[in-house]
Amino acid sequence: MRELLCNSTYFGVLISLIGYGLGVILKRKFKKAVFNPLLVSIVFVIAVLLVLGVDYESYNNSAKYLSYLLTPATVCLAIPLYQQLELLKGNYRAILGGIVSGALASFLSVFALAKLFNLTHQQYVTLLPKSITTAIGMGVSQELGGIVTITVSVIIITGVLGNIMAELVCKLFRIKEPVAKGIALGTSSHAIGTVKAMEMGEVEGAMSSLAIAVTGLVTVIGASFFANLM
Q: Residue 3 has what pLDDT?
């Protein structure tokens, strides 16, 4: 049975989709942030692999086809941005300022924590792209000499935490402006945060979509500079 699953072409895709579908059902039923579909699917896949004794490499070989959809899915986020183009033109200074500030905050927090916990250079650069979408973050990590698999994990964790805590943070700091909410989510939590932004409203979703692209560009440029600081 184990050999059959390890050699299956679509086993990884199947359990990934089942896990995500289960997460969607739980989120709709209980309406709790902790039942984020991506988080549920991660836990579900890990549990299935442990129970069936399937190693990660075998799973990844059959689940890699899902990653091919990552880039076109990210590009599709341009649609809500186009629909809010006039709003973007009227607030471009504040929007760009917010995105750059968010990217700098990400870099500085990683640098401070790396110093605090005495991380190696490789570990440090692995964490630098934590707040950008996986498609860009993997390339940045590889270029800087980081551990790509850990970078992917950190990016996912960052996005899931942003998705779960978004409403609480906005309520705690009394952030009511839709543009501010969208920029904050897209800058700090990339595509996973953008899903939450779209749930909040069209403006939030559009601004978050913009933040993903611009933050990715700022990170590609800024990561090279910050990588040399340690």
A: 65
Spell out the alpha helix ranges (H) of the chain. 2-7, 11-30, 37-52, 56-67, 70-75, 78-83, 85-90, 92-116, 121-127, 134-144, 148-172, 178-200, 202-227
CA end-to-end distance (rounded Å), the chain: 48
How does pLDDT run across 27-51, given as a tens digit for each residue? 899 888 778 888 899 899 999 999 9
Amino acid in the structure at residue 4: L
Global model pTM greater than 0.85: no
Q: Which residues contact 132 (CB under 8 A, 6 or more apart)?
A: 140, 155, 190, 212, 215, 216, 219
**Residue 78: per-residue pLDDT:** 72
Q: Report residue 219 as tokens.
A: 């990170």
Q: Burial, 11: exposed, middle or buried (Cβ in 10 Å; 0-12, 13-18, 19+)?
A: buried
Instruction: Give the residue extent of every domain in the chain.
Output: 2-68, 75-227
Tokens of 9: 């072409």
Q: Rounded distance, CA 59 to CA 30, Å? A: 30
- Please count the CA atoms within 13 angstroms of the CA of 181 that sit on its side-chain side: 28
* 36-58 b/e (C-beta count within 10 Å ≥ 16 → b): bbbbbbbebbeebbeeeebeeeb
CA–CA distance, 95 with 69 (Å, rounded to integer): 28
Q: Pick from 173, 124, 169, 185: which is nearest to 151 by CA?
A: 124
